[in-house]
Amino acid sequence: MEWSSSLYLWSTGFAFAWGALWGSFFNVVIYRLPAGLSVITPPSHCPHCKTRLRAYHNVPVLGWLFLRGKCATCRAPISVRYPLVELLTAVLSAALWLRLASPDAGFDPLAAIAPFGLLFLFLGSLIVITFIDIDYRIIPHEITLPLLALGMVSSLVNVSVTGVGWKESVLGALVGGGIIWLIIQVYFWLRKVEGMGGGDFVMMAMLGAWLGYASILFILFAASLQGTVAAVVLYVSGKSLPQPAIPGPGWGGSESEPDPPDPGSVAQPGLPDGGFRSMELPFGPFLALAGLEWLFFEPWIRTTVYALYGG
């Protein structure tokens, strides 16, 4: 089947809408999963007055604009982060479709559907992990472990789905997770405190399973560099991230439902007593960012690295 310009345009628009709809669900997961709540029931409601949202209130991005960022019943503010997550997911979904189904990629449009579906699941997991880690400093195994297994199984069943062979996938998981595990052990041995948690270890293994062992060094370098830049910016501005919220009962918290953090929280003034070296910054968002950079820009990254170091 050959692409026509109209089919290409409409399918990209569908991918954008698909991403926006799932972005709305990702907001639910980000809010409820750490709180130990079901992501299915009850239906979406205002966290302040508990009023159930009407269908048109749930329209991604537009619903927030229609409500002017406030609950229709109690007028409590609705964080701008909700439409931003929806918009981010929509843009990345459309970009993923363009990457896979572009005529330049040599893909039959029907053949691009399976890779798109699986890679969208991977992409979505990175979005959810990012915001949960920012809010709670936790990377949920409920997301990373199934995605780790799915990445390896997908590569084993059909290499064309992820573009990574099963040997590359398994080796990527082992090398990626192994390096983070080693860093955790060495850091603890040197400073007698944990520098990273087990969630980072499993997340890096997940990234290696989906993107292959060739991505590992870039992801570690890019994540560390971008994390350092973010830390310097916060330090210079005299700010730090809000304190992490307390997870729900399924996460070792109390039996009562916690109050998840306000997604609109901004950085607060003040630095830890130890200064720059003692700043706490979640590493998961930077691993996710580096993974997305490899997913979308792998050919350019390989070409650039070869040009710089390959002669």
Overall 3D geometry?
globular
Number of domains: 1
Q: What Rg is obtained from the alpha carbons, in whole angstroms?
A: 21 Å
Beta-sheet strand percentage?
under 5%
Whole-number mean pLDDT: 84
Cα end-to-end separation: 41 Å
Describe the protein's architecture and organization.
The protein has 311 residues and is mostly helical. The protein has one domain. The chain is built from 10 helices and 2 strands, in the order αααααααααββα. The protein has a two-stranded antiparallel sheet with strand order 1-2. Helix 1 runs parallel beside helix 4 and helix 4 crosses helix 10. About 6% of the residues have low confidence.
Summary, kept brief:
The chain is an all-alpha fold and 311 residues long. The chain is built from 10 helices and 2 strands; from the N terminus they run αααααααααββα.
Q: Can you tag this structure with a few keywords?
A:
mainly alpha; two-stranded antiparallel ribbon; 60% helix; globular
Question: Secondary-structure map with pairings?
Answer:
Elements (H helix, E strand, L loop, with lengths): L4 H28 L29 H5 L14 H21 L11 H24 L4 H17 L1 H4 L3 H26 L6 H14 L4 H22 L1 E2 L27 E2 L14 H26 L2
Antiparallel strand pairs: 1-2
